[in-house]
């Protein structure tokens, strides 16, 4: 079915067809099933994983073997609902959770559906993503946005979900002093989430002065600029602890390098926690014996689960403001798609690059 599903214009999408090659081409949608909805995309953000796929046709152990529609941070407007859908109507504005779990495996039944091995996740090979005019998606993974939450903010629920899930995994609360390694998009949303969960003091660490200034403007209590040199580790740990001014209860490594994880482990108090979010390096050399002697718990996370309602409530209530994170906006043309990914890949002053469709 080459049409958008309603006999209207042809549905188009941004296809990853090769290294550094994106093409806007037709994207055929299935007909809407009884428990599905068809959504007209309005806001789609670029994630670091999207850039990885573009640059290398792979991200971690996921490899792109055939052309794939890119994008998974998204929100839009309902255009068609399946016969059994009761929770949504045409015209509703929704944020989409991008992963469809099987619902039958031990992980799904045990409440950890994010670990489902049969997960079908937007723009994770071989599943197509959402940088398209329209997509078809399960209704129960489309979350209605309140009037005062924008579609762009709705699309930001996906990265924000990582920070929310991390804070839940690490049990962040009003007595948790937090260290965050990395002031990129995930470091910043983790910082915003930690504050919303009640963390009284948050220190953020990065190598980039500009990103640290952004973190400070978004509410970090203080920051420490570090180097990439492992020889500086001990001095930087001392400096981080001094700037915190009290015990570091929980550290989040939003980078995932040997040095950042080692810094997090060595900075955290006896009996504290370190949560690994970033996936920078597959292999790391870490001071585990020292961490073990201090009973530092190491927790990890993969994506998120049951986060959209809380993210939307944080946005609605004003506890979290993600709008300053959206630094660049582009339309949906061949030229703009290419330019948007270039801007995102360059980094610099780009935090979140957003498409307005």
Automatic annotation (TrEMBL):
<dbReference type="InterPro" id="IPR036291">
    <property type="entry name" value="NAD(P)-bd_dom_sf"/>
</dbReference>
<keyword id="KW-0479">Metal-binding</keyword>
<dbReference type="GO" id="GO:0008270">
    <property type="term" value="F:zinc ion binding"/>
</dbReference>
<dbReference type="InterPro" id="IPR020843">
    <property type="entry name" value="ER"/>
</dbReference>
<feature type="domain" description="Enoyl reductase (ER)">
    <location>
        <begin position="18"/>
        <end position="355"/>
    </location>
</feature>
<dbReference type="GO" id="GO:0016616">
    <property type="term" value="F:oxidoreductase activity, acting on the CH-OH group of donors, NAD or NADP as acceptor"/>
</dbReference>
<dbReference type="InterPro" id="IPR002328">
    <property type="entry name" value="ADH_Zn_CS"/>
</dbReference>
<keyword id="KW-0862">Zinc</keyword>
<dbReference type="InterPro" id="IPR045306">
    <property type="entry name" value="SDH-like"/>
</dbReference>
<dbReference type="Pfam" id="PF00107">
    <property type="entry name" value="ADH_zinc_N"/>
</dbReference>
<keyword id="KW-0560">Oxidoreductase</keyword>
<comment type="similarity">
    <text>Belongs to the zinc-containing alcohol dehydrogenase family.</text>
</comment>
<dbReference type="InterPro" id="IPR013149">
    <property type="entry name" value="ADH-like_C"/>
</dbReference>
<comment type="subunit">
    <text>Homodimer.</text>
</comment>
<dbReference type="InterPro" id="IPR013154">
    <property type="entry name" value="ADH-like_N"/>
</dbReference>
<protein>
    <recommendedName>
        <fullName>Enoyl reductase (ER) domain-containing protein</fullName>
    </recommendedName>
</protein>
<dbReference type="Pfam" id="PF08240">
    <property type="entry name" value="ADH_N"/>
</dbReference>
<keyword id="KW-0520">NAD</keyword>
<dbReference type="InterPro" id="IPR011032">
    <property type="entry name" value="GroES-like_sf"/>
</dbReference>
